[in-house]
TrEMBL record:
Keywords: Hydrolase. Belongs to the 4-hydroxybenzoyl-CoA thioesterase family. Pfam families: 4HBT_2 (PF13279). Transmembrane segments: none annotated. It comes from the Bacteria. InterPro entries: 4-hydroxybenzoyl-CoA_TE, HotDog_dom_sf, YbgC/YbaW. This is Thioesterase domain-containing protein.
């Protein structure tokens, strides 16, 4: 399993009145992490869009564990949790500099044609991208289900 990592410097504007990172900013950080993972394996989301495809979010969940604050650094770790014919699930950990987990998350995406929004397999859109996801996705031992 390949894990991408992206450092985030927490800005004052990302915090709430209590000085804690506002919860919606984590979703932005997930997108930053997912984009970094895609770049790390040799592709770009912008390239997918240029080719006429989008990858909308179908589901997202975040579990908040330990607050992050202005002036700290956060690290977004991203991996391919599952990859199937039409759906890809990404896993995330957002951690403090000392390794404490601030949040865990999961997002599920599909690929669609830009003009019609009809789902299409990433294998048809970009066979190499599909092959790379199959190679780096989380491996589940035989007999064990997620």
């Amino acid at each position: 399993m390949f894990i991408s990592e992206k450092e985030i410097e927490i800005r004052y504007a990302e915090t709430d009145q209590m000085g804690v990172v506002y919860h919606a900013n984590y979703i932005i950080w997930l997108e930053i992490g997912r984009t970094k993972l895609i770049e790390d394996i040799g592709f770009t989301y912008a390239g997918m869009e240029k080719d006429g495809y989008l990858s909308p979010v179908m589901d997202i969940s975040i579990q908040y564990k330990a607050a992050l604050r202005y002036g700290q650094k956060a690290f977004v770790r991203t991996w391919v949790e599952e990859h199937g014919r039409l759906r890809t699930k990404y896993g995330y950990e957002i951690i403090h500099e000392d390794g404490t987990i601030a949040a865990t998350a999961m997002s599920e995406h599909i690929v669609v044609k830009k003009e019609s929004f009809r789902p299409i397999s990433i294998q048809k859109v970009n066979p190499e991208w599909h092959k790379k996801y199959e190679e780096i996705k989380k491996q589940v031992p035989d007999g064990v289900r997620n």
